[in-house]
Amino acid sequence: MDTSPEFILQCEKAEEIQAGHKSYCDGWKDGDFYYWSVDDRIKVAYTESFDDYIVQHPEQWDFLRGRRVIWLPRQDQLQEMVICHGASDRGALVIDIVRCFYKWITHTPYNAGLAYSLEELWLAFVMQEKFKKKWTGEEWK
How far apart are the C-alpha atoms of 116 and 75, rounded to whole Å? Predict the structure, then answer.
């Protein structure tokens, strides 16, 4: 999972994705990654469930109150964003989206050298496909 400062900035600036996560999620989900800054240090929370133990969700931790919390989508979550929900043949849709991603990565003037992880590449793909935006190095335009 990419927790680099570059990916965190890209996620923070991807306002459409941040807003969408808040609107379709009932709070924090197990397995999600989040970023927040406490004392100028990066913290990443990974919530995880076990049969008899659940890590307390970060939204309940007092030191996060009033701080900006940024969701860091995993690669599978980014892929879900471009797969139609409710489709009858989900397997075919997954193959189609991988084909679209391959076409995009090989035929788009997006500089893959700017991406340091698959999460960064998939985030760029989602932002292009859904919102027609490209990463400038500082923001999505």
Answer: 13
